[in-house]
Amino acid sequence: MLGDKLREIFDKFSSKQFLTKDNIAEFNKELQRTLIASDVDIEVVFDLSKQVENLASEKVPDEISPKEYFIKKVYDLLAEIFGTTAEIPQNPKRILLCGLYGSGKTTSAVKLANYYSKKFNKKVGIIGADIYRPGAYEQIVQSIKKNNLDTISYSETSKDIGSIVKNGLKELSKCDLIILDSAGRSSLDDELKQELSKINNLFKPDYSFLVLSADIGQIAKKEVDGFSSILDINGIVITKMDGSGKGGSALIACKKTKAPVYFIGTGEKLEDITTFDPVRYLSKIMGYGDLQELMEKFSDLESGDLNLKHFDLNDFKKQMKTLKKAGSFTKLAGMLGIGKIDKNVMDMADDKFKKYEHILDSMTEYERKNPDVLKSSRVNRIAKGSGTYEKDVRDLLKQYNMMKDMFSNAENLGSLSEKDNLDPKEMMSKLGFDKKIMKMQRKKMKFKLK
Ligand SMILES: Nc1nc2c(ncn2[C@@H]2O[C@H](COP(=O)(O)OP(=O)(O)OP(=O)(O)O)[C@@H](O)[C@H]2O)c(=O)[nH]1
Ligand SMILES: [Mg+2]
Fold first, then answer.
1. Per-residue CA distances from 50 to 46, 47, 54, 248 (Å)
2. In terms of Cα–Cα distance, which of 152, 155, 149 is closest to 137?
3. How many whole angstroms separate alpha carbon 94 and alpha carbon 58?
4. Which H or E run contains 392?
5. Under DSSP, is residue 212 helix (H, G, I), strand (E, B) or coil?
6. 251 CA to centre of ligand 2 in angstroms
7. Are 64 and 197 in contact (CB under 8 A)?
8. Which atom of ligand 1 is nearest to the CA of 239?
9. In order of start, what are the domains of the chain with their CATH numbers?
10. 120-133: per-residue pLDDT in tens?
């Protein structure tokens, strides 16, 4: 598999004592070979090689060794060729799913219904518009029933696709989101083209997702282009990422189209669907342990990129680290109007930071990215794993929420590095704190430091 091979060459490279031109050239050659053997488009491979070659002449920041710098940069380049993280549409009204035979349309229709219902609290309806395969609609009905979903569905035994779409829209008009599952074909022939055009005209989807099976590899690009000649394909779902060695090349091929890969299917079950994030994907297939630490080192260096709109526990962790430096902490205390802090308080705060670090390290990446899932059983596990009490974990979550609230008012704020130079009062007013809230905040902070 691509991930294993990549890890092998990264490991081999890591074991080298120094970063030399020869080492880089050897690494680059092996990287090329691995990617080509995994069905990655040759042009993409050569392009990447050029960029890797150029890394040799980049200036390395003092805080990091040249070898670490090189590995991290190659990793970034790799993640980039896999695609970019696209923001998932949160309020789609009508999603049309299309694709060839067996690509996973029907399975994905139900998975997506469940995803939108759970994640965004949407009432979802599915129109079964496969008029050819007997049992196609029954597959939807059974899956909804088996999984106890509150999704509703509509289809007809009539073979009139126009009537199914029109009546489906009427019957499901109370739904926030309607997903249409279309019929597959072995190829994009004229019949399918006509049928999809007709559906498109009547259904008027705001999103048309092409469902691709990972095993088509780099042909993915051709398929997206083909379907795009009939429909405005503005999203891609790649299924069967669990079973194919060609998933990587399918992803890379999609990068060359204008449609983002929103979701990947990783199994047959309802919950086997995830949003696509290239870095997470790469970490997962490579399972590259040391990389985590390396990434953290970099995130410290690059903490200016803090995402204030989606402030998660990873950002909180970064903030903790920044605050740990006494200078910044005093500054924050000043900003919150606490004034001078004596040494005891600082020591206590330090202990707390250490505790928090252990707690954050005991969470999974998924939990740090989605703090909302941290309910009691997870809190219990994390407390045990970090050698702390549940109360400590809850305290941390409270602190996190407080900071998140603070940052949610920070739309006009610049990057974190700029923030360091801000006058506390100016910062508070930029954060949108009026006097009353500042007073409350001060109280909370005092309380927390006790
Ligand atoms: N392992 C795995 N299997 C999947 C995934 N998605 C779908 N499948 C399986 O692939 C097969 C085909 O899936 P369907 O959802 O019926 O595909 P379809 O595109 O609706 O097929 P047609 O309607 O016949 O064109 C089924 O056996 C699914 O269980 C996935 O992400 N991983
Ligand atoms: Mg189907």
1. 6, 5, 6, 20
2. 155
3. 47
4. helix 390-408
5. strand
6. 22
7. no
8. 31
9. 2-83 (1.20.120.140), 94-276 (3.40.50.300), 302-449 (1.10.260.30)
10. 999 999 999 999 98
pTM higher than 0.70 for the full model? no
Atom of ligand 1 nearest to the CA of 264: 31
CA 197 distance to own-chain centroid: 32
Q: How far is the CA of 156 from the centre of ligand 2 (A)?
A: 15
Q: 285 C-alpha to center of ligand 2: Å?
A: 29
**Cβ neighbours of residue 118 under 8 Å, at least 6 residues apart?**
none
Q: Is 265 in the pocket of ligand 1 (CB under 6 A)?
A: yes
Q: What is the pLDDT of residues 391-405, one digit of tens each?
A: 999 989 988 887 777
Averaged over successive runs of 10 residues, the pLDDT of the chain (450 residues) comes to 86 83 92 92 93 87 80 90 91 97 97 95 97 93 96 94 97 98 92 95 98 95 95 97 87 93 94 89 73 59 54 80 53 47 58 84 90 91 93 90 70 41 46 44 42
Q: CA angle, 261 as apex, 105 and 316 as ends, to 5°?
A: 125
Write the DSSP symbol of residue 374. Answer: -
d(CA 379, CA 390): 6
265 in Cβ contact with 273 (< 8 Å)? yes
The model's pLDDT over 291-302, given as tens digits with 9 standing for 90+, comes to 655 665 566 555
